[in-house]
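Hi all, posting the design record for the shared folder.

TITLE: backbone redesign
STEP: 1 of 1
STRUCTURE INPUT:
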C-alpha cells in the first residue's frame, strides 16, 4: 500500500476514535490545555544521557536535569544553575557559586558536592569533559553553595564544557560508573520523569516540578528562564510515520518532532498544522566504520569507499523533493560554522569512478570479508542512507551483510568490540548534531583515541595532537588553520565518512505557542492557546 493511501486510512481511523487505545485522553478535570502530547524522533530505550550518546536521551535529560551553564541562541554559554563564577589572574583557578532555590525532585537541596560528582561522571564520557579531567589538579566543594576547580593548564572552554549536556544529578546517583547505567532518575530541572509510567517502545511521561525556580530571564535556547506551562508531557512512540501524521491532523497529538520528508507537502496543506524548520545548524550525516576488525581496519579500503561516495545521492534518498533542506558538499565540520573549510574536499567533489574504486578495493588486499552494515529501521533518514551505502558497497565489490534493526538494538550493538560474526559490526549510518561537530573540541567521531573513543574506535596520533593544538590555539585564525589540517588528515585516515548536511523540519498544531527555537525539542516556555 502506498504511504499516502495509508495516511488517508489512518487519518480516518483517528477521526473515528480507532487510535484511542494507543493515545488515552486525560480526564476532563485534568484540563486538555495542561497536557502536551508529543511524538519523539524514536524510542527512549535508555534514559541515562551520560551512559548513552543518543540524542533522544539528551532530549530527555534536558527536560528533567538542569545544567550549570546553558548555550544561548548565539551558542554562547550563560549561567544557568550558577549565580556566577570567579577566575584567577593566572586562569588556573575557577570558583563557582550556585544560585538560590535549587532543589532536586526528591526535595533535597542541590549542593556543591552534587555538582562535583556530576561533573566527574559526565566528564569521562564527553570530549570537553575528558580535556577538563586531564587539566584538573583538584575539584572540591568549598561549602554547600560553592565549588572550586584548580587546573594545571588554562582551559578557555570551561563554561562551554559545562553547557555540553553536563546534567546535575544527586551525588549518590553520579557515583555510578559512567560506563554503567544509573538506576534512579531524580532530576534538578523543570519536569519530573514518571518512571513508573515509562514503557520503552510505547511512552515516556513527565510532570511539571512545581518547586523548580526558573531564572528570571527570557528563554534563549538552553539558557534563561525555563518556565513549565504544562502539568504533564506525554512522549508517545509512533514508529509509523503515517499514523503519527494522522494523529497530528485530528489533534490526537500536539507535536510531531520529526515528520518524514516525503510527507511535508501533505502536512503543509493541513488546517491547524504548522511545519517549521527551527534548526539553523542542521545535522551532519555520516557513515561510521569499525576500525578494529577487517575489512575496515584497512585505510586503503576506506579511501576506496570514500572515492565514490556521492553525497547528493545520500541526501536525495533521504530528503527527496525538499532540496532546500540539505547541503553538499560537507566536510568533517558542520558547513556554515567557523571551522568548516574546503580543505581536501576534492576527494568528495571530484568525478566518481566505480571501475577505479573496484580496482582500489582489489589493490587494498580485501579478502571478501563480510561487511556487516547496520541500518536503523525506525529512523527513515538513516535507513535510506544505509540502503545507498549498501548499494555502493556492492558496486565496488564488497560482500555486504545488511542488518536492519530498531535504533535501540543498534545502539546496544554498536558498543560491541567483538568481531561482526560474534555480535559486532562493520558500519552503520547515523547523524550528529551540527553544533556538536562544529569544531574539534566536542567532535567525538573525529577523535583518534582508539578504544577509548567513539564507536568505530579509530586510532590517529596526528588527529589527537592537532586537537590538543586547537584547544590551545591563541586565536580563531590559528584554530581555522588547524581545523583545515585535521580535515585533510581525516580524508586520508577516514575515521568516518561524511554524507552531507541536512535540516530536520518539525510539525505541530497551531494552538501551540512560544516554541523556543532550537535544533531539538524544548518543553519550557511552550504553552497552548
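Okay, here is what came back for every position:
SEQUENCE:
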Amino acid at each position: 500500500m502506498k504511504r499516502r493511501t495509508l495516511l488517508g486510512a489512518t487519518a480516518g481511523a483517528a477521526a473515528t476514535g480507532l487510535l484511542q487505545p494507543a493515545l488515552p485522553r486525560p480526564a476532563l478535570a485534568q484540563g486538555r490545555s495542561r497536557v502536551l502530547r508529543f511524538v519523539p524522533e524514536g524510542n527512549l530505550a535508555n534514559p541515562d544521557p551520560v551512559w548513552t550518546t543518543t540524542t533522544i536521551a539528551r532530549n530527555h535529560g534536558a527536560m528533567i536535569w538542569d545544567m550549570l551553564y546553558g548555550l544561548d541562541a548565539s551558542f554562547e554559554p550563560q549561567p544557568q544553575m550558577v549565580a556566577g563564577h570567579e577566575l584567577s589572574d593566572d586562569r588556573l583557578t575557577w570558583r563557582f557559586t550556585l544560585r538560590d532555590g535549587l532543589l532536586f525532585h526528591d526535595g533535597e537541596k542541590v549542593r556543591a558536592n552534587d555538582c562535583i560528582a556530576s561533573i566527574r561522571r559526565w566528564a569521562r564520557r564527553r570530549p570537553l569533559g575528558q580535556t577538563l579531567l586531564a587539566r584538573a589538579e583538584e575539584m572540591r566543594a568549598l561549602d554547600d553553595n560553592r565549588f572550586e576547580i584548580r587546573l594545571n593548564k588554562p582551559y578557555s572552554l570551561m563554561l562551554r564544557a559545562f553547557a555540553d549536556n553536563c546534567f546535575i544529578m544527586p551525588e549518590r546517583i553520579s557515583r555510578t560508573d559512567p560506563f554503567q547505567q544509573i538506576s534512579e532518575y531524580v532530576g534538578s530541572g523543570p519536569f519530573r520523569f514518571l518512571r513508573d509510567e515509562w514503557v520503552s517502545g510505547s511512552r515516556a511521561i513527565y510532570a511539571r516540578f512545581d518547586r523548580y525556580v526558573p531564572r528570571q530571564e527570557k528563554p534563549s535556547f538552553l539558557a534563561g528562564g525555563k518556565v513549565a506551562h504544562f502539568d504533564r508531557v506525554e512522549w508517545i512512540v509512533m514508529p509509523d510515520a503515517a499514523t503519527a501524521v494522522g494523529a497530528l491532523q485530528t489533534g490526537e497529538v500536539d507535536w510531531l518532532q520529526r515528520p518524514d520528508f516525503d510527507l511535508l507537502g501533505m502536512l503543509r496543506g493541513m488546517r491547524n498544522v504548522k511545519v517549521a524548520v527551527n534548526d539553523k545548524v542542521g545535522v551532519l550525516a555520516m557513515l561510521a566504520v569499525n576500525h578494529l576488525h577487517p575489512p575496515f581496519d584497512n585505510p586503503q579500503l576506506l579511501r576506496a569507499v570514500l572515492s565514490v561516495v556521492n553525497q547528493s545521492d545520500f541526501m536525495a534518498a533521504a530528503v527527496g523533493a525538499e532540496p532546500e533542506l540539505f547541503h553538499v558538499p560537507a566536510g568533517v565540520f558542520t558547513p556554515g560554522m567557523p571551522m568548516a573549510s574546503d580543505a581536501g574536499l576534492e576527494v568528495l567533489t571530484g568525478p566518481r569512478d566505480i571501475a577505479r574504486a573496484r580496482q582500489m578495493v582489489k589493490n587494498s588486499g580485501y579478502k571478501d570479508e563480510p561487511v556487516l552494515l547496520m541500518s536503523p529501521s525506525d529512523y527513515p533518514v538513516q535507513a535510506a542512507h544505509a540502503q545507498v551505502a549498501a548499494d555502493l558497497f556492492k558496486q565496488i565489490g564488497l560482500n555486504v551483510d545488511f542488518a536492519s534493526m530498531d535504533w535501540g538494538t543498534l545502539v546496544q550493538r554498536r558498543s560491541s568490540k567483538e568481531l561482526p560474526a560474534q555480535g559486532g559490526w562493520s558500519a552503520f549510518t547515523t547523524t550528529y548534531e551540527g553544533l556538536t561537530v562544529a569544531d574539534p573540541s566536542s567532535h567525538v567521531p573525529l577523535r583518534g583515541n582508539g578504544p577509548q573513543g567513539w564507536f568505530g574506535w579509530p586510532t590517529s596520533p596526528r588527529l589527537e595532537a592537532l586537537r590538543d593544538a586547537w584547544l590551545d590555539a591563541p586565536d580563531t585564525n590559528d584554530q581555522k588553520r588547524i581545523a583545515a589540517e585535521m580535515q585533510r588528515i581525516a580524508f586520508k585516515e577516514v575515521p568516518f565518512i561524511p554524507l552531507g548536511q541536512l535540516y530536520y523540519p518539525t510539525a505541530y498544531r497551531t494552538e501551540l505557542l512560544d516554541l523556543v527555537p532550537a535544533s531539538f525539542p524544548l518543553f519550557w516556555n511552550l504553552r497552548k492557546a
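COMMENT: The domain at 283-502 is CATH 3.10.105.10 (Dipeptide-binding Protein; domain 3).
Let me know if anyone wants the other runs.
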